[in-house]
Amino acid sequence: MYVYQSIAQSLADHELDTMFGLMGDANLFMVDHFVRAGGGTFVPVAFEGSAVLMALAHGRVAGRVGIATITHGPALTNCVTALTEAARAHIPMVVLAGDTAVSNPQNLQNIDQRETVKITGAGFEQMRAPETASYDVAHAIYRAQVEQRPVVLNMPVDFMWQEVEHTRHVFPAYTARSYVPEGDDLDAAIGMIASAKRPIILAGIGAKDAVAQIERLADRLEAPLATTLKAKGMFNAHPHNIDIFGTLSTPAAYEAIGKADCIIAFGTSLHHFTTDKGALMKGKRVVQINSTVTEVAKNFHPDAALVADAGLTADNIVWWLDQAEVPGSGFTAELDIAALTAHPKGDPDKAAPGFVNYEYALDRLEEALPKDRFLTTDGGRFMTEVWCRISCPSAERFFATTNFGSIGLGLQVAIGAGFAVPDRPVVLFTGDGGFMMGGINEFNTAVRMKQDLIVIVANDSAYGAEHIQFLDRKMDPGLAMFDWPSFAQIGTALGGQGILVESNDDLDKALAAIEARDRPLLIELRLDPNDVPRMRM
Question: Which residues form the Thiamine pyrophosphate enzyme TPP-binding domain (predicted)?
Answer without folding.
Answer: 389-524
